[in-house]
Design brief:
The complex is a heterotetramer of chains A (about 260), B (about 475), C (about 350) and D (about 350). Chain A is about 40% helix and about 25% strand. Chain A has about 260 residues and is of the alpha/beta class. Chain A has 2 domains: about 180 residues, P-loop containing nucleotide triphosphate hydrolases (Rossmann fold); about 80 residues, no CATH class. Chain D is an all-alpha fold and about 350 residues long. Chain D has one domain: ABC transporter involved in vitamin B12 uptake, BtuC (Orthogonal Bundle). Chain D is globular, with a radius of gyration of 21 Å. The chains are: A alpha/beta (about 260), B alpha/beta (about 475), C mainly alpha (about 350), D mainly alpha (about 350).
């Protein structure tokens, strides 16, 4: 499972994009994006709606391939590698709206998340010897995200906040090296956001974190570096402080953000 | 989309309704098992007739109430009811499928049990099973279409206690190959219906090279087999056999394939495609009357009305002759029209005539045994097998496979003379007493008619051909 | 541009080879008997025209609303029977469809056409308003609802319209055939007429989709459904109109097909299947896809009946299956399909 | 404190189940031969065909209209390989023919699944419908395998006996097969494979992101559905003693869909509930002049009503009743909503 052997040295970026573009029909959703993320880094992607953040996420996670450019993970070219194989390499992600298995229980959701990386997907029999440790791990994950009392509850009947917690729990199931969160705080109450921020800050430093976030408090509170996108391009990259001070960002995003608030 | 409480209550009601349906259905199912006196649509046990003293006799009748042939259900039922009406029964309504009241044969009241299938063999056997095993009919009359007949004849072997009489299904195998002891067919099959056509094409029209075209299933196979056998036996040559797929409606590409230089072609397209085929041929190739010989459906009264003047001159053959002046036929035709106004003018339809001869044979055999089936139908079947049925269009006898031997009529479609706007049919020759083997050409050992069988080769000419010494 | 994965490349080469083989084979046959080639080609083209008219209504409804109208074929069949009954009433049963004997005036064909199309359009509209509108977004449920409706319609047609398969009579003022300069062919005029109507329908739909506000919304619907939902209350009117037009086109197809081929009880399933195949090949919701799909289906159908080796022409239906598999293997969403 | 409503709910849920099992076990004693064969045995194999659809719809979110075509492939394969009238003239041992039929059907299911499993939702529905109709046309056209008249008098293993004169054997075989399939599918739902399928049902792209091979899972699921359908196909041929293209035409395809939907697309039991309702209604309405006179209109209206009122079918309604009664007994109405079946709709 260890990726360390293929990592030349920690100075090399764990994720590298070069000239990445993605076209849908006549629309260029992402255009000529270069991005380097270092191991252990906390990176936030910012930008107004339609800036191409989620499309970029989808390209990185392998949901669909880019129409231009090149994606490297852990130093390997993964441009055309399918999503499930990237997941096995140690890349995990969440989705903008909760993408959970609503017809299954909390425990089964976590169970699936665990075997997703470990394999054995096609085993049509139950073996207590092999399922036991996986179930144990699932319950452990539930506890870590505060859902230990809802193990048997169907996910469809969880509250929104609990579903976001479960998202994070599932994202952590496979001991990922990179974790990509798409607006984890969307729709959460103030209290839930604080809890989420703490949960993210408490994550192991071995995990590289990339998040899309509209909520400035969460984004700038968690991230060490911020990449700002607009109209499918990267326009600014810097520390949270630099971003706060950047006039362009202010005009494009923060201004409107505050106008809304 | 969760329902509110109103929706919940609504659902509850819906459920209770369906539940009530179900309980009633199961009750009916169980009830139908043990009661001989239940389930018939047209109970006739009121016994107003003084002669009706015996136990009621249950006769099941089924035709097609779904599928491609469903439009002909009324004709089949009208034909089947007529022998009962001639014996004093009265129609229950102007819809033949409602059956008759006060039907009595040989002193026994008759109960008619309604059934219907959809032209697939599976549905025919399921319906036959229901009528025999649940409704306990003693005699079963049906089915309508070719593949159904083979399946029901096979099933009849499982039910030696019941006598089966075919409705109008015309596949050759039903009697020639299956040969079930208790399955009788009182009309000629699709092959017999073509007797005389090959002779006429070769000797009268001088055709030598002919193409056949027919829908790709067993009834057209049987028809074209008869034409090929006769035409080739006396020296003709069938250069190509075209088989548009079952259910094809656009025949244009097949018409395009008929070479322009053949002498003519035989059309065995089924009942549902005839009108479309003829019209499309007209558009692509112009007048067809001098190029075509038609199968049984071209002279069907309903179809002929649609085809109109463009088919005047076409020669066809079949087991009915709409222009017959025989008193027996006129009486039959008038009786049908009197009983059911909708069936006026359809007496020459094979659907009406086939079911009519079947029921008439049943009635005469029952009269001969005085309604007594208590010997496991032995005497009744003996009577059927040896019957010389004096039918409206000539005598019908059965061969050793219980298959009808009867006259066939070579006919030409001529211009309207009766003034109803529909072309008329003129019989140009009667081929007497055609049997299923075509004078020995077909036998239980010859391959079943299909796309390539029988092969086109010279052989002993059938007796009714010029070469065979006939007319 | 990213590189083409080798597997896809192999599939493309394979398909290229298959197409090349088909082209050479058909070319060889065409050189052998060019007259037959032209007639069969026209048969295929005119058939494709009919398929396009029917399938364009189907794909329009799907593109905007994601409703798979499984009763589309039933609407086609209903229109045929409505027009037939009306024509019989208008002409007092005089207008036999028979070749050379049509006594139908131009009105005896046009009036049934218009009435039947409107009636069927209305039925489609009622269907949408009564059953489908409340289940927007539940695609599967909507499909099931339309299946139930198609079962009921089929049974009621069987119960209420007796008789054998018939044709509608074309107006007697239409010529029966037209002479082509090529190879001295005289070809049925009405089939050419259907092709012209199909082209006109295609152009009209294209203009509507490109030029009108209605068309803009339809286009938006094909690309992004959420955007359509966000457009406000007017959208219900747009949905209703689309359903009306879609059903109307099914009806138009039914009357054209009823005149060109026949009005038949099996029409509902046949034309539902053809519509499905056309849009699966062409891509759901795409007008151009419907045109390409209809062409492919019509030509394969016509040429398969004639050009397969002797003894195998009965298997031409399997060619359609092969075509379907081929397209799906390369483009799961059809030639012009876009992800929903 | 909420134990009593649970008990009541369980009793309502399991009580009828136990009654059904007892009645079925003793069915040959309780019903006439005809009813046993034409209604119950038919319902058992039709239920198997429907459960292959219910399994795909409920566990994997694939609503397939190709199940009848698949059981036709199994039936035709077997009918052609054993002694019979019509079809190819091979006369294998009936068991061997049966095995071959099941294998061929599963193989075709896997192959077709490989193509169709890349499509979702209504696309999948349409593609399977096209597949179904084309399989029908194939058997209608390739007369070497069937001909329009089909294959008659298909040879059966001795154990099946004669389904007309001695229907009890086939009834128990069908019952045993149905029970085994039901138990195995229920069990499968809790295995890694079954859970993965349910994950695919709820969110395929999330499953990809978690590292699952979604097309492979869907293809295997379709193959498994084909296997279950193959049992139905074999049983239907034994029951009919014949098979013809008409056995797998579009009306039959819709029958199986109707059965699955009436019973409840998202519960396995629903397949047989729908099948028994269907066969009883069918048998009952035949020969009776019901209002309007037409079975298909009646069944179409019932189908429409179920789709509009209760997407969970009769099983969904039963669930609502047990919930309702359970809440009444609890006296509060505070019990949590049963979200399983509602939220499982893959729409």
């Amino acid at each position: 499972m260890s990726i360390a052997a293929t990592e030349p040295e920690s100075a090399e970026p764990i994720l590298r994009l070069r000239g990445v573009g993605r076209r849908f029909g006549g629309v260029l959703a992402v255009h000529d994006v270069d991005l380097d993320v270092m191991p252990g880094e906390r990176r936030a992607l910012l930008g107004p709606n339609g800036a191409g953040k989620t499309t970029l996420f989808n390209v990185i996670s392998g949901e669909f391939p880019p129409t231009a450019g090149r994606v490297e993970l852990f130093g390997r070219d993964v441009t055309t590698m399918p999503a499930r194989r990237r997941a096995k390499l140690g890349l995990t992600r969440t989705f903008q709206t909760s993408r959970l298995f609503l017809g299954l229980t909390v425990e089964d959701n976590l169970y699936l998340a665990v075997i997703g990386v470990r394999g054995g997907h096609l085993r049509p029999v139950r073996l207590s010897g092999r399922d036991g440790p996986i179930r144990e791990r699932a319950r452990d994950l539930a506890q870590r995200v505060g859902l230990e009392r809802q193990l048997g509850t169907l996910v469809g009947s969880l509250s929104h906040g609990e579903q976001r917690q479960l998202e994070v729990g599932m994202a952590r199931a496979g001991d990922p090296k990179i974790m990509m969160l798409d607006e984890p705080a969307a729709g959460l109450s103030r209290g839930e956001r604080v809890a989420l921020t703490e949960l993210l800050l408490g994550l192991d430093r071995d995990i590289t974190l990339i998040l899309i976030e509209h909520d400035m408090d969460v984004a700038l509170g968690v991230a060490e570096r911020v990449t700002m996108m607009h109209d499918g391009r990267v326009i600014v990259e810097g520390t949270p402080a630099e971003i706060r001070g950047n006039q362009l960002v202010h005009d494009l995003y923060l201004g409107s953000h505050h106008a809304h608030a | 989309m969760r329902d509110g409480s109103d929706g919940g209550r609504f659902r509850l009601w819906a459920f209770l309704t369906v539940l009530a349906f179900l309980v009633a259905g199961i009750a009916a199912g169980c009830g139908g098992d043990d009661g001989d006196d239940e389930g018939g649509v047209t109970a006739t046990t009121t016994g107003t007739d003084a002669e009706a003293t015996g136990e009621p006799l249950r006769i099941g009748i089924f035709s097609n109430n779904e599928g491609a042939f469903a439009p002909f259900e009324g004709q089949t039922w009208g034909g089947a009811m007529l022998p009962l009406i001639e014996r004093g029964a009265t129609p229950a309504s102007d819809d033949p499928t409602d059956g008759v009241e006060n039907a009595v044969i040989a002193g026994r009241p008759i109960e008619i049990v309604y059934g219907g299938s959809d032209s697939t063999p599976d549905s025919a056997v399921e319906e036959a099973r229901r009528l025999v095993e649940q409704e306990n009919v003693e005699i079963l009359l049906g089915p309508l279409s070719g593949s159904e007949g083979i399946a029901v004849a096979n099933y009849s072997k499982e039910q030696p206690g019941v006598t089966f009489v075919n409705g109008i299904s015309g596949a050759q195998d039903t009697t020639l190959k299956v040969r079930s002891e208790n399955f009788f067919r009182f009309h000629s099959d699709g092959t017999q219906w073509t007797a005389g056509l090959g002779d006429y094409a070769y000797n009268e029209l001088g055709w030598r090279n002919v193409v056949t075209i027919g829908d790709d299933y067993d009834f057209p196979y049987s028809q074209i087999a008869g034409f090929v056998a006769e035409f080739c036996a006396i020296g003709g040559n069938v250069t190509e056999r075209l088989w548009p797929p079952l259910g094809e409606e656009d025949y244009s590409s097949f018409i395009t394939q008929i070479p322009e230089d053949v002498d003519g072609f035989f059309m065995g397209v089924g009942g549902t495609g005839t009108v479309a085929f003829v019209n499309q041929y007209g558009q692509l190739r112009g007048n067809l009357a001098d190029k075509i010989m038609g199968g049984i459906f071209m002279t069907d009264p309903v179809i002929l009305e649609e085809l109109g003047d463009q088919v005047v001159g076409v020669v066809t053959a079949g087991m009915t002759a709409g222009d017959s002046e025989e008193p027996a036929y006129l009486e039959y035709a008038e009786g049908l029209g009197n009983a059911y106004a909708d069936l006026e003018g359809t007496a020459s339809s094979v659907f009406a005539y086939g079911y009519y001869t079947a029921m008439e044979a049943i009635a005469q055999a029952l009269e001969e045994v005085e309604g007594d089936l208590s010997d496991d139908h032995a005497a009744f079947r003996e009577a059927l097998a040896n019957m010389e049925l004096d039918a409206p269009l000539g005598t019908i006898t059965l061969d050793e496979n219980r298959q009808a031997i009867m006259d066939n009529f070579l006919q030409q479609i001529v211009e309207d003379q009766t003034g109803d706007g529909v072309p008329d049919v003129q019989t140009i020759k009667t081929i007497p007493q055609v049997d299923q083997t075509f004078a020995g050409f077909f036998s239980p050992e010859t391959p079943s008619p299909d796309r390539t069988n029988p092969a086109c080769e010279e052989a002993e000419p059938p007796p009714w051909t010029v070469q065979g010494g006939g007319g | 541009m990213s590189a083409v994965p080798p597997r896809t490349l192999a599939v493309r080469v394979l398909i290229g080879l298959v197409l090349a083989f088909v082209a050479v084979y058909v070319g060889y046959k065409a050189a052998d008997d060019p007259r037959t080639f032209v007639v069969v080609g026209l048969n295929g083209l005119t058939l494709a025209g009919l398929y396009f008219v029917v399938a364009s209504g189907f794909t329009l409804i799907f593109g905007l609303m994601r409703v798979v109208n499984m009763a589309h074929g039933s609407l086609y069949m209903l229109a045929g029977f409505f027009a037939l009954e009306l024509q019989k009433n208008l002409t007092g049963g005089e207008a036999t469809s028979a070749f050379g004997t049509s006594k139908a005036g131009i009105g005896d064909w046009i009036i049934p056409l218009v009435v039947a199309c409107l009636a069927v359009g209305l039925i489609g509209l009622v269907m949408q308003q009564v059953f489908l509108r409340w289940n927007q977004g539940q695609e599967l449920r909507q499909a099931l609802i339309t299946i139930a409706i198609s079962i009921i319609i089929a049974d009621q047609v069987l119960a209420n319209f007796g008789g054998v398969a018939e044709n509608l009579a074309a107006p007697s003022s239409f010529p029966e055939t037209v002479s082509l300069r090529l190879y001295d062919i005289s070809y049925p005029f009405f089939r050419i007429f259907v092709l012209l109507v199909a082209i006109a329908v295609g152009l009209a739909l294209w203009a509507m989709i490109k030029r009108t506000r209605f068309g803009m919304i339809v286009r938006a619907g094909v690309d992004d459904r959420q955007m359509v939902s966000a457009l406000g209350i007017n959208i219900q009117l747009v949905f209703a109109s689309a359903f009306l037009i879609g059903a109307f086109l099914a009806g138009l197809g039914g009357v054209l097909g009823g005149t060109m081929i026949s009005v038949n009880k099996g029409n509902d399933t046949t034309y539902l299947l053809f519509s499905l195949i056309v849009v699966i090949i062409g891509g759901m919701g795409s007008l151009a896809g419907a045109a390409i799909g209809a062409l492919a289906l019509g030509l394969v159908d016509a040429f398969g009946d004639v050009y397969l080796p002797a003894g195998y022409t009965n298997y031409s239906v399997l060619l359609i299956f092969a075509l379907l598999v081929l397209v799906l293997a390369v483009r799961p969403l059809g030639l012009f399909g876009r992800p929903a | 404190m909420t134990r009593s409503p649970h008990l009541v709910e369980r009793a309502l849920w399991w009580g009828p189940g136990i009654v059904v099992v007892l009645v079925l076990a003793a069915a040959p004693l309780l019903f006439t031969d005809f009813y046993l064969s034409a209604v119950l045995t038919k319902a058992l194999w039709l239920g198997l065909a429907a459960v292959s659809l219910t399994f795909l719809a409920g566990y994997v979110g694939m609503v397939s209209l190709g199940q009848v075509a698949l059981y036709g492939i199994a039936g035709f394969t077997m009918a052609n390989l054993v002694e019979a009238d019509g079809g190819s003239a091979i006369a294998w041992n009936p068991w061997l023919g049966t095995l071959a039929g099941i294998l061929v059907c599963t193989g075709v299911g896997l192959l077709f699944g490989a193509i169709a499993s890349r499509s979702y939702g209504i696309y999948f529905l349409m593609i399977t419908l096209a597949f179904g109709v084309i399989v029908y046309l194939f058997f209608a056209q390739v007369t070497q395998l069937s001909g329009f008249g089909g294959v008659n008098n298909v040879d059966r293993p001795d154990i099946v006996s004669n389904p007309v004169s001695d229907p009890a054997n086939l009834f128990y075989i069908a019952l045993g097969t149905a029970a085994a399939v039901y138990v195995l599918l229920r069990y499968l739902g809790r295995t890694p494979f079954g859970l993965a399928l349910q994950g695919v049902r709820d969110d395929p792209s999330r499953m990809r992101a978690l590292g699952f091979n979604v097309p492979l899972l869907r293809m295997l699921a379709f193959g498994l559905g084909a296997l279950v359908a193959a049992f139905a196909g074999i049983l239907s041929v034994w029951w009919n003693t014949r098979i013809s293209p008409g056995s797998i035409d579009l009306p039959r395809t819709l029958d199986v869909l109707i059965i699955a939907v009436i019973g409840g697309l998202y519960r396995l039991e629903g397949a047989w509930v729908g099948a028994i309702v269907f066969t009883v209604l069918d048998n009952w309405t035949r020969g009776i002049d019901i209002v309007g006179g037409r079975f298909n209109t009646v069944i179409g209206v019932v189908f429409l009503a179920i789709v509009l009122l209760s997407p969970g079918g009769l099983m969904g309604i039963w669930q609502s009743i047990t919930d309702f009664v359970g809440r009444r007994f609890a006296g509060t109405g505070s019990s949590p909503p049963e979200a399983a079946e509602e939220s499982a709709h893959p729409s």
